[in-house]
Structure formats: structure tokens, C-alpha cells
Amino acid sequence: MEYERERTLLIRSLAEQGVSERTLKAMKKVPRHLFVPSIHASRAYVDSPLPIGHAQTISAPHMVAMMCDLLELKEGQKILEIGAGSGYNAAVMAEIIGKKGQIYSIERLEKLAVFAHENLENAGYSNVEVILGDGSLGWPDNAPYDRICVTASAPDTPHPLIEQLKPGGIMVIPEGEGYQRLYIIRKSPDGEVTKQDWGGVIFVPLVGHHGFNPYDSKRG
Ligand code: SAM
């Protein structure tokens, strides 16, 4: 199969970094080369972010793996993703939650929403719905969510996302401008919210009502 050797080497390297069996199994199945512009397909299994146009990137495989592990994904869950980008992260999560689960992935840039939708369709993922909109407001229509995965860096935790997280749910979110940290936010069964700092990361900015201002050139 095309790119199988490259994908196997990538998975081996992620295994050495301590990624869980569950996430490795999912990433083994997702053809990342179908989620990058064809000009970058030969680099699809290098562990780095790649440009997907419109000044945005597909996240590096180790970052996708890390976020999936931190989210403690389980079969049948309902997930909200902010920042569909290429659709790759959604595809990996879809492999883990299985056909009984559902993902809603919001993207603010129309061309990328179409890109993500087409990539997911070509790769055969039917339980991911890509929605065009401002994910800093969440997506109240299908709330609450078992898990929320934010793939762009916010100035602070958008309160609609906390409200739309189910009791017992987990959210991962990068926050900060320039110097960014990844946070794990947990809502206990009785609604208490805790925030744990996982460490430094680099993401594109979350642009929107509870994100950065699109008209501020420093913030993209
Ligand atoms: N998850 C993506 C993937 O697997 O390719 C990577 C996403 S990329 C690092 C971040 C994405 O967030 C970009 O496509 C960007 O346009 C999008 N974004 C930024 N602000 C947003 C917002 N307020 N709502 C929805 N999407 C947003």
C-alpha cells in the first residue's frame, strides 16, 4: 500500500514517545497523505506540521497523538472539535470513538471547511460533520459534549466551551499568544471545573468572538 512503510516508521517513533496503544492503532489506519495538499504528500509521514494553505497548518502527528491521549477518548462519545483544518485530527478521533460516536468539527475559513469535508469523505469518515463558523462560541445545537478538542490557541478559555462540556467531560485547549501552554480542563460530575497545565506548545491563533481579533495583524 502507498506510504505504508513511512506510516509504520512514524507509528514506531510515536510508540517510543509513549503514545497509547489505542491512539497508535487509530493513527495506523488514517491515511495522513490524503489530508495534506498533494504537493506535500511525500512529507505526510514526517512528524511535523505542514502548510494547508490560508496561513494554517495540519498539526504534527505527535501533537495529534498527545491531544487524543489527554482527552481519554472512548467508544461512542460525542466530540466537539474547534479548528477542522485538514480534517486529520477529526479522522484520528473518529477511529477511536468508532461508528457509534459523533464528531462536530467547526472551521472558520470556508475553503478549509470544504477541504476538511472532502478529505474526510475521500478517506471514508461519515461520522464527522464539518461546520462553518466561529468555534470560540462552541456549537450549542448539539451540546453538551463528552469531549472538546481545541486546535488553535485562545487568549483565555472561552466560557461557551466550558458551558457546553458535559459533567464528567474533558477539554484540551492551547492558550496564549506567542508563549502558549496546553491546558487540560475537567468538569467533575457535579460541575466543578479544574484546569491543569500540560506544557508549552505552538498553535495558530483562535480567531473569533472569544478568540483573537482578526483585524490585529500581530495575531493573524
Ligand atoms: N485540527 C486540524 C487538522 O487536523 O488539520 C488542525 C487545525 S489548525 C492547527 C487550526 C485551525 O483552526 C485552522 O484551520 C484555523 O482556520 C481554525 N480556526 C481558528 N480560529 C477558529 C475559530 N474561531 N473557529 C473555528 N476554527 C478556527
UniProtKB/TrEMBL annotation:
Gene3D superfamilies from the UniProt entry: Vaccinia Virus protein VP39 (3.40.50.150)
Family, similarity comment: Belongs to the methyltransferase superfamily. L-isoaspartyl/D-aspartyl protein methyltransferase family.
A Gene Ontology cellular-component term: cytoplasm
InterPro entries listed in its UniProt record: PCMT (IPR000682), SAM-dependent_MTases_sf (IPR029063)
The organism of origin for this protein: Methanolobus profundi
Main location: cytoplasm
A GO molecular function held by the record: protein-L-isoaspartate (D-aspartate) O-methyltransferase activity
HAMAP family, per the entry: PIMT (MF_00090)
Alphabetical keyword list: Cytoplasm, Methyltransferase, S-adenosyl-L-methionine, Transferase
Protein name: Protein-L-isoaspartate O-methyltransferase
Name of the gene: pcm
Protein role: Catalyzes the methyl esterification of L-isoaspartyl residues in peptides and proteins that result from spontaneous decomposition of normal L-aspartyl and L-asparaginyl residues. It plays a role in the repair and/or degradation of damaged proteins.
Catalysed reactions listed for this entry: [protein]-L-isoaspartate + S-adenosyl-L-methionine = [protein]-L-isoaspartate alpha-methyl ester + S-adenosyl-L-homocysteine
Cellular compartment(s): Cytoplasm
Active site: 59
Gene Ontology BP, a term: protein repair
Entry EC no(s): 2.1.1.77
Enzyme category, top tier: transferase
SUPFAM superfamilies (UniProt xref): S-adenosyl-L-methionine-dependent methyltransferases (SSF53335)
